[in-house]
Amino acid sequence: MIDPRFYQALGPVTVRALAPSADIGGDPERLVSSAAPADQAGLTDLCYFEGKRGATALTNAPAACIITPAQAHLAPNAGALILTDRPRGAFARLVPALLRPRGFPPGAPSIDPSAKIEEGVQLGAGVVIGADAQIGAGAVIGPNSVIGPGVTIGRRAKIGPRVSIAFALIGDDVNILSGAVIGEQGFGVAGDASGPIDVPHLGRVIVQDRVTVGANSCIDRGVFDDTVIGEGTKIDNLCHIAHNCQIGRGVLMAAFGGVSGSTVVGDNVTLGGRVGIADHRKIGAGATLAGGAAVFQDVPPGEVWSGYPAKPLRKWLREAAWLSRKAGARNEGE
């Protein structure tokens, strides 16, 4: 469900009004008021479906489903079908007519009167706080930081200078260093007849208690689901966590690390400097990824991986030793 603290509903609108030039099957007068993933869409939701070969039919009943003509039979319960060869691109174009991210109206005061600021909060010069934001007791917000509408910041949090926080719920005793950006739209791009188009992100960022986020690090909000940073996790400077990632408790992430979208990192994982993890991977609890590792596979719990591409440390060391011997023998024979 889209969180109304962060997104304004613009509907309802009929399917025909939403997509006036589209090829529509079913009821073109069906009302649509929100958006959701295909497998979660309800009676008032717009969704899109791009099933792979052999995909099973949707069992739910969305108000409207954007789908290819060849797969239209896989959404039998949809109130209406919007038929196109590029469902995701069409979805990206239509969603802004239904939902608008809350922002800062022109001429709004730097601290909105509706913001709830508890006792003992310290605000630096130039701080901006949006409508309906909540700041917990004892929090410190550094100069020129921007706290977006609806954002919640827990008690005793420390927010450094020039931090941007939007579409996010921040826990107690969180420390966010200067220049960090929490809750911006992630890198989601869909193909369209006119070229690449940005896919709207309608999720949130959840930062649990006692997390540290280093200077100039970025954590993207989810597309629909939340991006979650677990309790006690420590993120170094200049790191990036993409949309929909689930980062467990007690994770340590050194500088220049990057975690691609929809990856799950288990509790107490250690990521060395400059580690990169591909999208939709699972890193098991207690695993260690050595500095510079490029991870393209799932990593079992407790294992140590290294290398480019990353593999179990002992295997990587054996291969490196074999290559060194072969290279040395060749040099001796020249």
Largest beta sheet: strand ordering: 11-14-17-20-25-28-31-34-37-39-40
Question: How far apart, in Å, are the first and last alpha carbons?
Answer: 68 Å
Number of discrete helical segments: 3
Identify low-pLDDT runs: none
Superfamily at the CATH H level of the largest domain? Hexapeptide repeat proteins
Shape: flat
Work out the count of structural domains.
2
GO molecular function: N-acyltransferase activity; UDP-3-O-[(3R)-3-hydroxyacyl]-glucosamine N-acyltransferase activity
Keywords: Acyltransferase, Lipid A biosynthesis, Lipid biosynthesis, Lipid metabolism, Repeat, Transferase
Pathway: Bacterial outer membrane biogenesis; LPS lipid A biosynthesis
Protein name: UDP-3-O-acylglucosamine N-acyltransferase
Features:
mainly beta; 9-stranded parallel beta sheet; Udp-n-acetylmuramoylalanyl-d-glutamate--2,6- Diaminopimelate Ligase, Chain: A, domain 1; UDP N-Acetylglucosamine Acyltransferase, domain 1; Hexapep_transf_CS; 2 domains; 3 helices; UDP-3-O-[(3R)-3-hydroxyacyl]-glucosamine N-acyltransferase activity; flat; single chain; 334 residues; 11-stranded mixed beta sheet
Description:
Residues 30-95 form the UDP-3-O-[3-hydroxymyristoyl] glucosamine N-acyltransferase non-repeat region domain. There is one protein chain. The chain is mainly beta. It folds into 2 domains: 7-101, MurE/MurF, N-terminal domain (Udp-n-acetylmuramoylalanyl-d-glutamate--2,6- Diaminopimelate Ligase, Chain: A, domain 1, 3-Layer(aba) Sandwich); 167-313, Hexapeptide repeat proteins (UDP N-Acetylglucosamine Acyltransferase, domain 1). The protein is 10% helix and 29% strand. The chain is built from 3 helices and 40 strands. An 11-stranded mixed sheet has the order 11-14-17-20-25-28-31-34-37-39-40. A 9-stranded parallel sheet has the order 10-13-16-19-24-27-30-33-36, with no helix packed on it. Strands 12-15-18-21-26-29-32-35-38 form a 9-stranded parallel sheet, with no helix packed on it. The chain starts with 6 loop residues before the first strand and ends with a helix.
